[in-house]
Amino acid sequence: MTHLYKILLLAILVCGACGQRKTAGSAPQTGESAARPHFDTDSAMAFLKAQTDMGPRVPGSDAHRKCGDYLYGTLKRLGADTVMEQLVTVTAWNGDRLPLRNIMGRFNIRNGVRPVLLVAHWDSRPWADAEDDPERAGKPIDGANDGASGVAVLLEIARQASVKGTNMPLDILLVDGEDYGNSDAPDGDSSWCLGTQAWLGNSPYNSSPTPRYGILLDMVGGRDARFHREYFSDRHAPGLVDMIWNTAASIGLSDRFVNEPGGAVTDDHVFLNRAGIPTVDIIENKNPATGTFNTTWHTHGDNYSNIDPTTIRDTGRLVSKLTINNNN
């Protein structure tokens, strides 16, 4: 995933804008209540495992092809009004030619009504560049947290939408080619999120209403993860950040969704905001051990065994409240 602006983050920390860090460890949250929408964590975990069982989903690999077919077929099976895909070949920063596949399922389409857009990337990192072992650093990673976790939550939201319905049009976009970037490359920021950049050049919104807003999920399965307000989200969509974090507090998730500034992350939401779709990134960006991302980031530790089901559950509950159980 993504490059975190470490220099900017350090500047924020020096000026005190990031506030006090929260310690790791989630308050116990057992059972269901009226305040906490139901989210089937087991189902989401099954969606996650199905992805990682295929192996690293690096563009051009057999696992990538199989996973793309799985995601497309799952959205159709879950009853999306329509499932569409965009096939495009792009050139990465290092000259690699990447066959990308962006996949979108649309639920409860209503003529003239603007949808809510939910986004996650489904590709995985082709190198473990944060790995301590140099012999393993060049090998692709499973990407259980960095990629598969967000997709798993959105597939479960899609399943709920098919069972319970939704009182708003809902678009679920699974983007490709997010994690092939290199922040040290020329124009390093644009080397990330290649699928989203390609999708924006020919999105369905060229001929239909643009989304009311977007929510991006990335790295939402880390152990004891805390989600601080991401810098670019706060800068471009502060009211939307307020709404999301206030909703989290209203359903008892203020420990998980910490209403304090975090780091700045180059992620798919940066390009969506530039295109005029106000979008917030829910991403762990102020881990107490690293100061930035989860400790498994871009290592071979980013595998299914290190996923925290309670983090998946709480993220899913919030997104469910915002979409499936929203009475506004």
Query: What is the average per-residue confidence, as pLDDT, rounded to a whole number?
Result: 90
Order of strands, widest sheet: 2-3-5-4-6-10
Question: What percent strand?
Answer: 15-25%
The end-to-end span amounts to 33 Å
The total strand number stands at: 10
Helix percent band: 25-40%
**Tertiary shape:** globular
The H-and-E topology, N to C, reads as EHHHEEEHEHEEHHEEHEH
Please, how many helices? 9
Written description of the protein model:
Strands 2-3-5-4-6-10 form a six-stranded mixed sheet, sandwiched between helices. A two-stranded antiparallel sheet has the order 1-9. A two-stranded parallel sheet has the order 7-8. The model is unreliable at about 5-35 (pLDDT under 50). Helix 2 packs across helix 4, helix 2 (about 40-50) packs across helix 9 and helix 4 (about 145-165) crosses helix 9 (about 310-325). Helix content is about 35%, strand content about 15%. The protein is globular, with a radius of gyration of 18 Å. The chain is an alpha/beta fold and about 325 residues long. It contains nine helices and ten strands. A hairpin with a 5-residue loop joins strand 2 and strand 3.
Name a few traits of the molecule.
328 residues; six-stranded mixed beta sheet; two-stranded antiparallel ribbon; 9 helices; 10 strands; 33% helix; globular
Summary?
With about 325 residues, the chain is α/β, with parallel strands linked by helices. Helix content is about 35%, strand content about 15%.
